[in-house]
Amino acid sequence: MLEMTNNNLIKNIVLALTIVSAMAIFKYAQATPFNLKPLHHSQTEKTTNSNNLATVAMIFQPDCSWCKKQGKALTEAFKQCKSSVNITLVGAKGNVRELKKELKHYHPGIPSFAADRKFLRAIGGYQASPTTLIYDDKGQLITKKRGFIPYDNLSKALNIISQGNCNI
After folding, report:
1. N or C end: fewer C-beta atoms under 10 angstroms in the chain?
2. Which strand (E) or helix (H) includes residue 38?
3. Among 10-19, 67-76, 78-87, 89-98, the least confident range
């Protein structure tokens, strides 16, 4: 019965994100479903999903104005939903120094990492930034959305993956 409920949850999330995509022509977040090199000095080690929460990760790159806009919505989610969903940033298409410099545009508490080839292969690559990745509470990639996600649509998706516990 629980497995069926999880399958229904995943189907509902995918359906909601599909609807959101069509409409748009679309605890502290320290656990992630992947192992990457941290960009923050305060993050001293790689992390893995250990808190059984869904994760929303945004791939950003240097000089990406849409990433900064998406980051504002993720900052709000991070502030309000730390205990119900993991929010994280993954930098790509830049060296570590450039990616660290870009972090000034995002909330300093959001865990941030540098993408590596293994990670990019695992997600099937990406074509543009921002790209938002949504993982379930078991660390399985549910969906990947290219481009900016409007605030209302992101809010709906966060509410669904947090099972109603994240309302921004």
Report:
1. N
2. strand 37-38
3. 10-19
